Amino acid sequence: MKSQLSLVSISILASLLLAQPAPAQAKLPFFGAGDQEMPSLAPMLENVTPAVVNISVAGSREVRQRLPGALEQFLGRGGELRQEQPFRGLGSGVIIDAKKGYVVTNHHVINDASEIEVTLKDGRTYKAKKIGEDPESDIALLQIEAEDLKQLELADSDGLRVGDFTVAIGNPFGLGQTVTSGIVSALGRSGLGIEGYEDFIQTDAAINSGNSGGALVNLKGQLIGINTAILGPNGGNIGIGFAIPANMMKNLVAQFIEFGEVRRGALGVSGRDLTAEIAKAMKAKTSKGGWVGEVVPGSAADKAGLKSGDIITHLNGKRIESFTELQAKVGTLGVGKEIKLGILREDKELTLTAKLEAKDVSTASAKVIHPMLDGASLADGKTPDGENGIVISEVAERSPAAALGLEKGDVIVGVSRSRVTTTKELRDILTKSSGVIALQVQRGNRILYVLIR
Fold first, then answer.
1. Does a structural domain hold residue 5?
2. Residue 66 falls inside a structural domain
3. Contact 398, 415 (CB under 8 A)
4. Which DSSP string do the residues of 166-234 spell out, in sequence order?
């Protein structure tokens, strides 16, 4: 891949800031004297950049290669050749706790790595151990044993506005620590198919390969997000980058530290983003929010009094733009968390309190379990006979799950003759399976098989 290196200019940012006073909460420091006085990000970055680290990983992962027909018939290996292949990779990370040596990065940066090294800005290098990781949100927590570390203060990412200035810090293409600047281009970006739970900050600060896991900060030097993905050809920057909000990361890290894993809470509803058509049909006076299509009996939502047809407009006092945003925010909160929901019911504003339970009702989680299940809302439940299984409460039209022939009300009870009773068991089996997979599905009183290729 060809690339052209150039110095990053902040002249546009400087001219904008000189044209109007900076807001009180984000005053930009100045340097020089007299007529040479100019705004600069340098004083802020001197305090921030020591908390952003480079990460290098090594390991091996299984590579699968389709066998030619003749070899497949002769060897009888299910049509695939599997072998372990070594790999190395680079990324970035952020120190969020200097005393305990906690470093946050992306899951995809350290996935399958058996060796992880963290290099500080001053050149010191340390072996790191994994504390926890969550592929569905693409967050991982590492720990190093080191003295004299610097950490970043966390901002309240729920208070961000489109147009706020941003600074991205990371290790693009392995060049070493690099700083770029921009603004918040959009908030609550989802539906990109990058992760299971998506509620991204979009920014035009240049983010490239190797920036993953690095810091997105405001002009105070506070962490507002973890850089995670870009939209661009050949992995290059075109001004569309995405970061995981700091508040979402904070919720996940707290669970890593306490449990070593994410114990995801769920509300127990299925639904969709509120559209103009749905708002018109429901005679709603709002065009944004999460429309509730179904409430799972006995779920946290059911116990809180949520009903089908309700429109969720606020979560813990913060505006909710879509059902997807609701899923992402709830999906990163832990089991047992108490939340307040602002809803519209027949144009009446109500506030309900729900305590999240350990059931997963999420189209996004279905996609993570297997791409061909995308579009199916899954939940731990029971068959009509009272046996445990995975209930399909909703199937989106023209989705991969619909193409398989799955229907609302189906209950998945087995995979290739292996019994499954929970979404976790289903995920574990499908992650290890290859080739053609047969889902055993109970539909009413009938048992049928659905093939996933």
1. no
2. no
3. no
4. EEEEE-GGGS--EEEEEEEEEEEE--SSSSSS--EEEE-S---TT-TT-EEE-TTS-EEEEEEEE--GG
Whose structure tokens read 């058509």? 277
- Pair of tokens at residue 390: 């995975």
Domain that holds residue 162: 157-259
**Which residues does the annotation mark as catalytic?**
108, 138, 212
Confirm if 379 and 359 have CB atoms less than 8 A apart: yes
Q: Which two tokens stand for residue 127?
A: 């072996």
pLDDT at 353: 94
Secondary structure class of 129 (helix, strand, coil): strand
pLDDT of 355 above 80: yes
Q: What's the pTM value of the predicted model, to 2 decimals?
A: 0.68
End residue of a domain, out of 204, 231, 259: 259
Are the C-beta atoms of residues 453 and 429 closer than 8 Å to each other? no
- Phi-psi sector, 316: left (phi>0), alpha (psi -120 to 50), beta: left
Of 127-131, 324-328, 426-430, minimum mean pLDDT range: 426-430
Whether residue 249 contacts residue 138, with contact meaning beta carbons closer than 8 Å, is answered with no
Tell whether 323 is covered by a domain. yes
Q: Of 311, 329, 355, which one is at a domain's C-terminal end? A: 355
Amino acid 131 reads: I
Longest dimension (CA), the chain: 85
